[in-house]
Design a protein that fits this description.
Elements lengths: L5 H22 L4 H37 L2 H16 L1
Helix pairs in contact: 1-2, 2-3
């Protein structure tokens, strides 16, 4: 199945730009709290991208698995991801 990951890809590209900015800030010995705040912003973008990908997965792969008799396998994959996410 073809997925439309445009939204997630845009979020990831934005996070990449912010990571590059954080690296420059660190190299320039900028104020620690400013660096920490930028890192939090990157984490938020990555979480949003991940949730976007998981939502797409639920709406496509998991939905399709209902007709392919693979629902248990797909739900176990989601549970494993959520378990990692919550740690």
């Amino acid at each position: 199945m073809k997925h439309n990951h445009t939204k997630a890809l845009n979020l990831l590209k934005t996070a990449k730009g912010q990571i590059e900015a954080v690296i420059r800030m660190t190299e320039d010995d900028r104020y620690c709290v400013d660096i920490a705040n930028q890192i939090l912003a990157v984490e938020a973008l990555l979480k949003k991208a991940n949730l976007t990908i998981l939502k797409q997965h639920l709406n496509t792969c998991v939905k399709d698995s209902l007709t392919e008799d693979k629902f248990t396998e797909k739900t176990e994959e989601i549970i494993a991801i959520l378990d990692k996410y919550m740690k």
